[in-house]
């Protein structure tokens, strides 16, 4: 069965959520209202996504740190809707549990970190709310500095009056939490932030995450916990000082009365989950060939003749690796490394094997064939144009002026370069070559980046002059892989390196 490139296209809509902890006064006073607004927003996303998905199940994902407060509240709402939850943790799961629950003694930290229970009922209750996450969410644990963070935490708890110990722990805490914000932002179409807009200068805090999202051109849906019904959309940091007047839960255009907030939310969902356009559908018309043809390999023969290449060098006829064979072929060592790190049946490994790598092989093979076609046409044009000039004046040294018309006729026949140029333009060899090459180069390093949890933010993809299907196809193929469910420690980093 022929490979269908659109089978690797699985668009999804991704939301990141960040917000205050329970000790924030505005959130503590209005938690039920904030929950109601989040539920309304999520429901609107779910309804719009279902309408776009048709008979299939809509793919909506949520990224959140699952800390106490807004994060856990949003996670519960996401679970209720059946959304996939991906959680980057700033520390290993055990240490993260101890820090998130606010364990106040070294014994509590040790107990929670090692999977035990805290004797303090309040701490244990907080811990229990987070313990259920591993069974429901995909955890990406940034644990390479756990030893330093744990030592700083225990030093602070042993000497709670030491300003230096507290300062050192806070520095470690901020640095690691700040790493998780970009992990969410670069995979999301929208950041929802429950933020009172008071502070934005501490790394890892809600305000800092909002600023980081706006710097990467990721739109922010901002909910002020003091007035949660009047949420706003932001696309730049400058808009924070000029927030529009709100009404009924979103911004309203002063001139038209249009509900711009809800319209922009719908637009984001449609941009992510909308149907494939004609240009993406046209991918199916690209015909796969396992090797180059004689005509399309003409320039390779020119290269062989003038460049001293031999047939054994493989430059005369190119062989393209079929999409169905790449996992057991050239990509086998890479997949073996990924499996040793993540496991053979890991979700990321399976998606790389079944979607990203075949899409790369397909685009690389198609692009190479189209490059052969375009270059061979150019080579043929150069050769025919030179022969046309030679034949056109050959009657002079041969003294056959009376038969000039014969030479002129042959010269006219050699002007088949017009036909070649027309065919090259009509078939769009150059355009199609560059489009499929863009896909191949976007996907080439995708597997290595995926197992490290690295992605390009949605707004940072290049814009094509004529068609953006290569960027959209590649972006969705890579983002669909998601975060690996893994503990990133120093041994993991060394193996990837």
Structure notes:
With 497 residues, the protein is an alpha/beta fold. Helix content is 53%, strand content 8%. The chain has helices at residues 25-53, 70-80, 93-100, 106-113, 121-131, 146-158, 163-185, 206-215, 260-273, 278-281, 298-307, 332-342, 347-393, 395-398, 404-414, 417-427, 429-444, 446-451, 469-479, 490-496; strands spanning 13-19, 60-63, 84-89, 138-142, 190-194, 220-223, 232-234, 246-247, 250-251, 486-488. Helix 1 (25-53) links the parallel strand 1 (13-19) and strand 2 (60-63). Helix 1 (25-53) crosses helix 9 (260-273), helix 6 (146-158) runs antiparallel to helix 7 and helix 13 (347-393) runs antiparallel to helix 17 (429-444). The chain is elongated.
């Amino acid at each position: 069965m022929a490979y269908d490139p659109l089978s690797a296209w699985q668009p999804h809509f991704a939301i990141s959520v960040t917000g205050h902890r329970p000790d924030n006064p505005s959130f503590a006073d209005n938690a039920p209202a904030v929950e109601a607004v989040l539920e309304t927003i999520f429901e609107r996303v779910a309804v719009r996504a279902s309408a776009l998905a048709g008979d299939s199940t809509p793919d909506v994902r949520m990224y959140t740190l699952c800390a106490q407060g807004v994060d856990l509240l949003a996670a519960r709402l996401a679970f209720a809707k059946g959304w996939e939850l991906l959680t980057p943790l700033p520390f290993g799961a055990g240490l993260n549990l101890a820090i998130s629950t606010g364990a106040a003694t070294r014994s509590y930290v040790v107990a929670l970190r090692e999977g035990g229970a805290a004797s303090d009922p309040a701490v244990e209750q907080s811990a229990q709310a987070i313990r259920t996450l591993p069974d429901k969410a995909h955890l990406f644990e940034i644990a390479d500095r756990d030893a330093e963070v744990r030592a700083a935490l225990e030093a602070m708890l042993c000497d709670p009056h030491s300003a230096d110990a507290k300062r050192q722990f806070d520095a470690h805490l901020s640095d690691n939490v700040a790493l998780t914000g970009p992990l969410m932002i670069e995979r999301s179409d929208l950041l929802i932030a429950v933020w009172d807009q008071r502070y934005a200068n501490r790394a890892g805090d809600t305000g800092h995450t909002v600023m980081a999202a706006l710097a990467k051109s990721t739109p922010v849906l901002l909910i002020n916990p003091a007035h949660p019904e009047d949420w706003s959309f932001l696309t730049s940091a400058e808009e924070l000082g000029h927030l529009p007047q709100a009404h009924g839960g979103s911004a309203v255009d002063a001139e038209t009365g249009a509900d711009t907030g809800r319209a922009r939310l719908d637009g984001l969902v449609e941009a992510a989950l909308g149907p494939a356009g004609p240009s993406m559908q046209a991918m199916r018309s690209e015909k796969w060939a396992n090797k180059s043809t004689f005509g399309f390999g003409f320039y390779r023969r020119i290269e062989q003749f003038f460049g001293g290449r031999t047939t054994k060098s493989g430059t005369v006829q190119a062989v393209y690796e079929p999409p169905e064979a790449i996992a057991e072929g050239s990509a086998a060592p890479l997949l073996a490394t990924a499996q040793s790190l993540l496991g053979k049946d890991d979700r990321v490994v399976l998606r790389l094997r079944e979607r990203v790598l075949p899409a790369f092989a397909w685009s690389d093979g198609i692009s190479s064939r189209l490059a052969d076609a375009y270059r061979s046409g150019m080579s043929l044009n150069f050769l025919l144009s030179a022969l046309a000039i030679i034949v056109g004046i050959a009657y002079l040294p041969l003294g056959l002026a009376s038969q000039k018309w014969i030479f002129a006729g042959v010269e006219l026949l050699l002007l088949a370069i017009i036909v070649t140029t027309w065919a090259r333009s009509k078939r769009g060899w150059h355009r199609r070559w560059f489009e499929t090459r863009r896909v191949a180069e976007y996907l080439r390093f995708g597997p290595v980046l995926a197992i490290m949890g690295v992605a390009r933010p949605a707004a940072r993809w290049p814009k094509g002059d004529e068609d953006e299907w290569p960027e959209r196809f590649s972006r969705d193929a890579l983002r669909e892989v998601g975060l690996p469910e893994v503990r990133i420690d120093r041994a993991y980093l060394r193996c990837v390196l």
